[in-house]
């Protein structure tokens, strides 16, 4: 098995272990449906890679990586309810499969299991709590105080997408007992990657072919979501350029750590490059 799939497999195994122990069986089934239906596992991969880049053992970061994936999935359950999205990762979304009440309970269950995984480390708890606050603020802004210009859009993208990316990288650095400057630098890297990811996602939704993208397009316009194309004066090409600027800033944050150019570090660099050129 290749380098990165091995790391992701560690996270998947831990997620399966956590969910297998959940009671009652009805809740376990709902969490299985949400978490084990697939997903890119980008955030937990960032956690593992950040840990290794600092010089830590990936096994030391697995609980944090699984935890951040659970938090991410909990947020997706809520997003699907708000957006009335009936499909997630090619399967019925939680609310479409089980109803709104059970879906909300599933989201709460995911958060509970996640914080159990973080509870052994005070720094980790603080990092995730801060990310959750920002995520909640982002959800509120999207619903009641929608951005109308580029600066407000970037603030929203930082809260809704960048915050969990930041937490993922900072958790990995904390797992490796990194000093505060390195933790902050990895957080800056990941937050910038998250914003670039969101901007590219918005552009693809507005311009890509649905078959090539692998999912319906035009969803931002249909759901009246504040995408970079909808609420700024940037053209898709200009939005892609701004996403590239965010990626470049992410790479500069990695450079500031002055850590060795290991395989883990190279994967982190590749991720910053990939998010702005991806076609799906």
UniProtKB/TrEMBL annotation:
InterPro entries: Isoprenoid_synthase_dom_sf (IPR008949), Polyprenyl_synt (IPR000092), Polyprenyl_synt_CS (IPR033749). Its cofactor is Mg(2+). This is Polyprenyl synthetase family protein. It comes from the Archaea. Belongs to the FPP/GGPP synthase family. It holds the Pfam family polyprenyl_synt. Keywords: Isoprene biosynthesis, Magnesium, Metal-binding, Transferase. One of its GO terms (molecular function) is metal ion binding. GO terms for biological process: isoprenoid biosynthetic process. CDD domains: Trans_IPPS_HT. Its EC number is 2.5.1.-.
């Amino acid at each position: 098995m290749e380098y990165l799939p091995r790391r992701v497999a560690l996270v998947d195994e831990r997620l399966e272990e956590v969910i297998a122990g959940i009671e009652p069986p009805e809740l376990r089934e709902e969490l299985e449906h949400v978490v084990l239906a697939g997903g890119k596992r980008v955030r937990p991969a960032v956690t593992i890679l950040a840990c290794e880049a600092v010089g830590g053992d990936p096994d030391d970061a697995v609980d944090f990586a699984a935890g951040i994936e659970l938090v991410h999935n909990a947020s997706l359950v809520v997003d699907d309810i708000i957006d009335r999205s009936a499909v997630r990762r090619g399967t019925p979304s939680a609310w479409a499969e089980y109803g709104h009440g059970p879906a909300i309970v599933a989201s709460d269950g995911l958060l509970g299991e996640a914080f159990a995984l973080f509870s052994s480390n005070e720094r980790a708890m603080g990092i995730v709590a801060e990310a959750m606050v920002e995520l909640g603020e982002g959800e509120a802004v999207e619903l009641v105080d929608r951005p109308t210009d580029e600066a407000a859009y970037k603030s929203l993208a930082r809260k809704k997408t960048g915050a969990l990316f930041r937490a993922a990288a900072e958790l990995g650095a904390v797992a490796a007992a990194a000093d505060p400057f390195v933790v902050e630098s990895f957080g800056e890297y990941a937050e910038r990657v998250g914003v670039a990811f969101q901007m590219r996602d918005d552009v693809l939704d507005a311009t890509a072919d649905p078959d090539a993208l692998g999912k319906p397009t035009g969803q931002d316009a249909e759901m009246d979501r504040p995408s970079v194309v909808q609420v700024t004066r940037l053209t898709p090409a200009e939005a892609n350029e701004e996403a590239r600027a965010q990626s470049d800033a992410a790479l500069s944050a990695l450079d500031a750590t002055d850590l060795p150019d290991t395989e883990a570090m190279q994967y982190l660099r590749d991720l910053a490059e990939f998010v702005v050129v991806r076609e799906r």
